[in-house]
Amino acid sequence: MSASLVRATVRAVSKRKLQPTRAALTLTPSAVNKIKQLLKDKPEHVGVKVGVRTRGCNGLSYTLEYTKTKGDSDEEKKAQLTLLETEMDYVEDKLSSEFVFNNPNIKGTCGCGESFNI
């Protein structure tokens, strides 16, 4: 059983110029550094899975979980389409620290910023 990592916020962003890439999800250096830091304390885990679940008042929500292996079904089409062009960032301020998903495809978010629809 995987444990959830941390809280994440969803933000709708305006359309950006597409850059050729093979990745559905890009990570900022800040997000990469935070994931490396989190995994340093969990040597039995090989990475973090980013997923999408149906929940929340607006339909969908991102999930983050530690993983010990990469399975064949880890790149499911539903998650790929929902993550397409999304940037995952990690931000810290005086009151909080969290992963933030900047997704130009989002049409709406809930008031608390934890769920979205496409």
Automatic annotation (TrEMBL):
One of its GO terms (molecular function) is 2 iron, 2 sulfur cluster binding. Involved in the maturation of mitochondrial 4Fe-4S proteins functioning late in the iron-sulfur cluster assembly pathway. Probably involved in the binding of an intermediate of Fe/S cluster assembly. Interacts with CRY2, but not with CRY1 (in vitro). Belongs to the HesB/IscA family. GO terms for biological process: iron-sulfur cluster assembly. This is Iron-sulfur cluster assembly 1 homolog, mitochondrial. NCBIfam families: iron-sulfur cluster assembly accessory protein (TIGR00049). Pfam families: Fe-S_biosyn. Gene3D superfamilies: HesB-like domain. Residues 25-114 form the Core domain. Signal peptide: none annotated. SUPFAM superfamilies: HesB-like domain. PANTHER family: IRON-SULFUR CLUSTER ASSEMBLY 1 HOMOLOG, MITOCHONDRIAL (PTHR10072:SF41), IRON-SULFUR CLUSTER ASSEMBLY PROTEIN (PTHR10072). GO terms for cellular component: mitochondrion.
